[in-house]
From TrEMBL:
Pfam families: UDG. This is Uracil-DNA glycosylase, family 4. It comes from the Archaea. Residues 23-146 form the Uracil-DNA glycosylase-like domain. Gene3D superfamilies: Uracil-DNA glycosylase-like domain. Residues 175-196 are annotated as: Disordered. It comes from Halobaculum gomorrense. One of its GO terms (molecular function) is 4 iron, 4 sulfur cluster binding.
Length: 232
């Protein structure tokens, strides 16, 4: 089933109870769902688009362009089959703000319903959590792998993890990416031990897209007519 909407920003019309928030942005029928933490970490309050307004977000969006997940980066990225959103879309102010400046646990809990609604409405084939908190949440809520997966982002960066209906590919927080010193290879790859984090992500996404990552079944044989009926 496809979502029918021409809206790129906040296609599901979510309206959380906060003064400022960064809604989801992208293709409502995306194959790839990129999941950040909150605006205080990954930006977006100025333009209303996740991963904009910070150097780390710019690095991430540029890597997604190189990997073919975005047609264009910038303050209003050109998307095709990719969706960007946050675990906690509201700005962490007032009662939502903890002592460390991040949202409080209760505020994360309150915002989870909005995030979960987006995940299930989009039903992307691949979830790409960005940073430790998003990765931990996705592994705990959408896979059975959390109990046996150490959240070491250097190790998990660009690594495929099979979930319960989703394939998960964690991304190290782009604010902590390193450049590395490996020379790109002619096929676009690089020495894995010396490659920068952007190159590692691009190579992982290129490899993934060369496989049959869409976990679908054709149920058309069970219904009248000759048209395929693909479901996850």
């Amino acid at each position: 089933m496809k979502n029918v909407t021409d809206r790129v920003s906040n296609p599901f019309g979510l309206s959380p109870e906060c003064d400022r928030f960064v809604p989801g942005y992208g293709d409502a029928n995306a194959d790839f769902h990129v999941i950040g933490d909150h605006p205080g970490v990954h930006g977006g309050l100025e333009h209303g688009v996740p991963f904009t307004g910070t150097a780390g977000g710019e690095r991430l969006l540029n890597a997604l362009v190189r990997a073919g997940l975005l047609a264009e980066a910038g303050d209003a990225p050109a998307v095709d089959s990719t969706y960007l959103s946050y675990l906690h879309m509201c700005e962490a102010t007032g009662d939502r703000r903890g002592g460390d400046g991040a949202p409080t646990p209760s505020s994360y809990g309150d915002m989870e319903r909005f995030f979960d609604a987006e995940v299930r409405a989009i039903a992307a084939h691949v979830l790409l959590p960005v940073g430790e908190r998003a990765t931990r949440h996705v592994l705990e809520q959408y896979t059975t792998q959390a109990h046996k997966t150490a959240i070491e982002m250097d190790e998990l960066h660009g690594r495929e993890i099979r979930g319960s209906g989703w394939l998960v590919l964690p991304i190290k927080d782009p604010g902590a990416w390193t450049d590395g010193d490996a020379e790109p290879e002619p096929n676009g790859g690089a020495d894995a031990d010396r490659a920068g984090d952007a190159d590692r992500l691009v190579e992982a996404l290129d490899t993934l897209q060369a496989t049959d990552y869409r976990r679908e079944s054709d149920l058309g044989r069970f219904i009248a007519g000759s048209e395929p009926y693909m479901v996850r």
